[in-house]
Amino acid sequence: MVGPTDLVERSLRDDTREEFDRRVDEQADRVADALGAGRFDNPDFALGLELEAYAVDGDGRLARVPDAVFEGRCERELGRQNVEFHTDPTSFDDEGIAAQAAQLREDVRNARRTAGREGTEIVLDAMWTIPPPGGSRDYLSDVRECDGVTLAENMTASARYSAIDNDVLSRTGGTLTFSVPGADREFPSILFESLASSIQPHVQVPDVAEFPDYYNTALRTLGPVLALATNSPLLPPDLYDADEPDRLLDETYHELRIPAFEQSINPAWEKVRFPHDIRSVEDCVGRLVADPTCAPFLREWLADGDRETFADRYWELDHKRGTYWRWLRAVIGGQPVDGGDQWSVRIEYRPLPTQPTVAENVGFQCLVAGLVHGLCAADHPLATLDRDAAERSFYAAVENGLDADLAWVTADGDRTSDRTRIYGELFEFARRGLRDRGVSSDTVDEFLGPLEARWTERTTPSRWKLARVADRLDAGDPFDEAVREMQTEYVRRAGTGEPVAEWS
């Protein structure tokens, strides 16, 4: 039996990389042929969702997810404290949205029930801030060497994760720097990426010829949608050097997940970034092939049997897609809605942090799908917005949330940074897109209403968090206690299912 360190060593060999790249090139040529033959066209749109969360103990401190949780419908993620839920694809309509919400509610409820029996709680949040008993730095820096391979003790025991970690470390001298306002830290592993949790809405586009319009339009929504979702403004207090907590609250970013992910990988290659427009789906294949190869594995090391799914027939190409980290990504091939053999092309919308409640996470799935479809169905001119302006808008949202200098093109073709106009159109076209897919008014109100209230009330999870910490500082609490009190209240409120716009 091949052990995990053996797989990591194999992955890092030059001959593995050469063979992997050869297979990727060959498989990409076959995928391009299949795209031209209509193999990826589908009868209709479809939806899916990935949702990450983390575990805490009875004192609210970061904890490992109990193994029993993974006997249900969820998977492990990078850190041992992480759990990922994912929905099966459903039709993009009223019934499909109901099925997405029902599955997610059931899976989260079951995971929480199982974790609770072992004294832990599953939290829907974008960044943990109450450290484990030994402290954040020790938790994120606990590594050992085994047969020349670096193993992070609090990373999920996965050869793939360890191979990525070692490939990055081999190109960065064994150390990675994480720098955000108030904190400059060095780590011996990419594990600091696991500070953060995310959601990833998926939208399957049935007509491959129309996919570039959907992709390029979605690219220009990233800034405004992220600004509405921000939920990771603070690190665990023991990672900060700040002596002036009030100043830190003013200077911190509203979405620290973005720099955490980018800085964990980009010192080795600039792989985590805002993408460029595409002209065809074939562009997506070409860019995947051209992207630097990270932690290559070969099919015969892991694959079981000789099935005919896309991932089995194009194993190395699909494996490489797993390290093609763009904030918007095209996924070619995938599980069909009806369990048939038709392959698909979908948008994977990647920058959004995990939200406090299941309903709000599904709300962002509805917002993204409805907005992109509504804009494209109406032939809205948003895609004419300069790509660089869209990128600046995105990183402005990372830093400033709802106060960001956003960029938009209105339905009349006017360039604007007026947030009132931007969010007016954003919700208008999201609702239009959902109605066009036969989604009922009740469903639209149920899932978009709480997000519209965020704009009306000018609140987001990150704004709520920063305000609560500021209140505790004004009451005389030290910074670490102020963060702990905020986080404890967040967990309690999130557990009630009450949307953040109603938190006082």
Describe the structure.
With 504 residues, this protein is an alpha+beta fold. The chain has one domain (4-502): 2-Layer Sandwich (Creatine Kinase, Chain A, domain 2), CATH 3.30.590. Helices cover 46% and strands 12% of the residues. The strands form four sheets. Strands 1, 2, 3, 4, 5, 6, 11, 12 and 13 form a nine-stranded antiparallel beta sheet that branches. A two-stranded antiparallel ribbon has the order 7-8. A hairpin with a 5-residue loop joins strand 3 (75-76) and strand 4 (82-86). Helix 14 (358-377) crosses helix 16. The mean pLDDT is 96.
- Helical region count? 19
CATH 2nd-level architecture: 2-Layer Sandwich
Main beta sheet: 9 strands, antiparallel
Q: Note poorly predicted spans.
A: none
Helix content range of the residues, please?
Answer: 40-55%
Write a concise synopsis of the structure shown.
With 504 residues, this protein is an alpha+beta fold.
Layout of secondary structure:
Elements: H1 4-11, H2 14-36, E1 46-56, E2 62-63, E3 75-76, E4 82-86, E5 90-91, H3 94-116, E6 121-123, H4 136-141, E7 143-146, E8 149-152, H5 159-170, E9 176-180, E10 183-187, E11 199-204, H6 211-219, H7 222-229, H8 245-251, H9 257-265, H10 281-290, H11 299-302, H12 310-313, H13 315-321, E12 328-332, E13 345-349, H14 358-377, H15 387-400, E14 408-409, E15 415-416, H16 419-436, H17 441-457, H18 461-474, H19 479-496
Antiparallel strand pairs: 1-2, 1-4, 1-5, 1-6, 1-11, 3-4, 7-8, 9-10, 11-13, 12-13, 14-15
Structure keywords:
single chain; 504 residues; alpha+beta; 9-stranded antiparallel beta sheet; two-stranded antiparallel ribbon
